């Protein structure tokens, strides 16, 4: 190794504390990049592979009842490759040891006992039901895991009011139910929602559907246009109660998954860009200052004939070593975090396997960006040092120009101690450097806030949607719209304290060339259990002469209050009507319409019907009520509002918490790297000055206060900027997350600001304490003996 | 030991005419040189004597290609230094000049041997770092780091570093300035030996008049000008100096 190479190695070793601090910041940036990109690529690859293996359908068409003889006609539609008829029913599952109802979506398997042609069941354990036996069932893997169900366990299924005992013969999943959330809910609830696969024969008997089907799934030929197929399919099914076929982009699981992937991709692009940008910027600043402290050595080397090029290679090598160390740490950390994150997502999406792969592109990008940042920082610093003639470089820099600060010019100096004046003048003399430090600290604070923000946002969403807007205990839904009088039947059940009718009408809203498939919820004008809210979270009365729409639809359908829209009913008489938009409802989850119940019924012309009832329930009365509701054949499902909130937090809470701490850790690392390096560099630049002050009689504490107080001031000044940057960063992230499924609101709690502020202060104190140990070790005599 | 005027005193190694240098230190303009004419000859041992601020270091730095004059010209063996590019100056320093600084300017992270090696690795036909260190009596300290050496030892490492590439010119800025008398004498002995044995043109800056007695020629600087020039008819060996 050349002498210059050895110098590089030893200098790095000497600067190991600072080098490590920088490397950690880089590691944070690279880790974020590798983590999110790897997770995104892995999940996308996993999804594609699973869809292919499981033969996910291209079109779904729900209907009421059609004879099996219709199927060949459907399969003959040009563009259709495969058509699979099946039965689909909602029921209630009784799981021994769990005294809440579990909503079950039951899917029929072909009569011959084999796999369906489309949406195949991927068995995790056990087998498919024997076609000869009607009491065998395959349980969805998510629910099976939530209740620790195994092959051989027995379950009680209520379908159309009739109970039967079933034996679990398999546990599995299908590409159709990757994201399993109960109908109408946004978040998964594995304990209270299950997918079951049963023999077609058994279901035909239970539903009284001999030789008939109520759902068809289709696979299209390559190149076939879904719109064209739907145009032929819908009229064929209309007379059998078809409510319109839809594609993958409207299929619940596929749609959610697509949305989640899109969000993940936004995160994979935006978040690392911010983080790596901060890391690059820090590396740049710190290396500038680091090379600056070697100004005299650069002078000597130049005096002996080392060229700029040789020196550039030398310092670039040092910078690259730090960057590569950081990148290596980051790749290892990001790979591990990515694997963990993909695992967390897999727990939510229930893929049967995970094709985890470290993103080569992310690794390459991470290394390249780190190296570029290191090179830019080192080269700019070197240019500053090397542009000086060697004689001048070896001389100590001319005493810097100091002057009275703004504060002193304002005549406030009598309030300032001598050390405070020194600190202020130093800051004012190098405003750029101070500004960089403040900016870096602010970004660290912002990163920490982003970590907490998700939790805040979810709290707000749950709070507004599930607490302020909803007050019911149980929501009971019916198999099909029922006469209004069932309300009185349910209201009279023991334990029911309040009952309000609701009609959820599936519709397609059309405005101009835009359309959206959703539901209009008909509510009583004086409803108390379910109230749409305006932007100020005040309840709005559902309108009798118009429809209230979720505010998000305003942009989606390009409409404004007062406009007329077309409402195409997707059930009953399937009427097409024009309705005025009466106002907007503020909602963070979902996108739908609200109307006065009577007005809605008049509009759709299906008579005075309701599709469900919201119940207030007396404490302790629920188990008995479940049993009573379960016996009613027209009850399709029962869901408990509080139980789903609790379940949501149980599913998501842990990952939100971990995310908070990972972001806090990364922010803390940035913060530490910045403060520690700033302090170490100040110490090396001002060592002589500080030692002189010690010789003149200042205590160690006073000298430390001088050096660290200045940094402390910057830390404090950075906080408001950090809070603003944090808000901005959250805003930036949220922009990519908006969809009709949910909108993440920018609500940051005081606790989040406090948390970020305390993390910043804490990380600063730790780095300050490390540097203070060095101040204690200042060699006074040696410092004063060296050259000026 | 040859204590007379060197033989090849005919053609100057360095020729400087009308050198002027003004520094800008913060808001103040400091004139360091105000028109210096100078010739230096091969094998000469020249002492530049003068009080602080007389312009000694500035003159030396310009001769060594470390700094550029505000006005005036310098030639080194026919090379026009004042018109040279940064690259040419780098090559000039690399091939022809050795420097010794008052505060040694050793690289703290390298051992004595490596501090010499950092220069020999650049040179065409250098002596080995071991030989260079032996010439300054530091053969037994080669693997010590600067922080483990005394000031005199560090300065001798700096001399070894300067002579190891066999430069034609050795420029020394207050080489004993930070040293006590006895240590300083050892450093001067090393310089004297190098001058005699290798024929290196040696320029030593000092404000210590005693050191002038070992020179062939003494130039007195004052206020940015050469105010007087003396030639020692009889040089005193460095070993006999004390102050």
How would you describe this protein?
The complex is a heterodimer of chains A (788) and B (243). In chain A, the strands form 3 sheets. Chain A has a 6-stranded mixed barrel with strand order 3-4-9-6-8-7. Chain A has a 6-stranded mixed barrel with strand order 13-14-18-15-17-16. In chain A, helix 2 runs antiparallel to helix 10 (360-386). Chain A is built from 22 helices and 20 strands. Among the domains of chain A are: 53-256, no CATH class; 430-470 and 642-788, no CATH class; 496-617, no CATH class. The longest helix of chain A is centred in the last third of the chain and has 55 residues, at 641-695. Chain B has helices spanning 56-63, 86-96, 112-120, 129-135, 151-163, 181-198, and strands at 12-25, 28-41, 45-49, 71-76, 79-80, 97-100, 169-173, 201-206, 217-222, 225-231. Chain B has a 6-stranded mixed β-sheet with strand order 6-7-8-3-9-10, with helices on both faces. A 4-stranded antiparallel β-sheet of chain B has the order 2-1-4-5, covered by helices on one side. In chain B, a hairpin with a 2-residue loop joins strand 4 and strand 5. The longest helix of chain B is centred in the C-terminal third of the chain and has 18 residues, at 181-198. The two termini of chain B are 23 Å apart. At the A-B interface, helix 1, helix 8 and helix 11 of A face helix 2 and helix 3 of B.
Which secondary structure elements does this structure contain, and how are they paired or packed?
The complex is a heterodimer of chains A (788) and B (243).
Chain A: H1 3-14, H2 16-53, E1 59-67, H3 71-75, E2 80-86, E3 88-95, E4 98-109, E5 122-126, E6 136-140, H4 141-146, E7 154-159, E8 162-173, E9 193-199, H5 200-207, E10 212-220, H6 226-238, E11 246-247, H7 252-292, H8 295-303, H9 308-349, H10 360-386, H11 390-394, H12 406-409, H13 418-429, H14 431-468, E12 474-483, H15 486-491, E13 496-511, E14 514-523, E15 547-550, H16 551-556, E16 564-569, E17 576-585, E18 593-596, H17 597-604, E19 609-617, H18 622-630, E20 635-640, H19 641-695, H20 700-735, H21 750-776, H22 780-785
Parallel strand pairs in A: 4-9, 6-8, 14-18, 15-17
Antiparallel strand pairs in A: 1-10, 1-11, 2-10, 3-4, 3-7, 5-8, 6-9, 7-8, 12-19, 12-20, 13-14, 13-16, 13-19, 15-18, 16-17
Helix pairs in contact in A: 1-9, 2-7, 2-9, 2-10, 2-19, 7-9, 7-10, 7-14, 7-19, 9-10, 13-20, 14-19, 14-20, 14-21, 19-20, 19-21, 20-21
Chain B: E1 12-25, E2 28-41, E3 45-49, H1 56-63, E4 71-76, E5 79-80, H2 86-96, E6 97-100, H3 112-120, H4 129-135, H5 151-163, E7 169-173, H6 181-198, E8 201-206, E9 217-222, E10 225-231
Parallel strand pairs in B: 3-8, 3-9, 6-7, 7-8
Antiparallel strand pairs in B: 1-2, 1-4, 4-5, 9-10
Helix pairs in contact in B: 3-4, 3-5, 4-5, 5-6
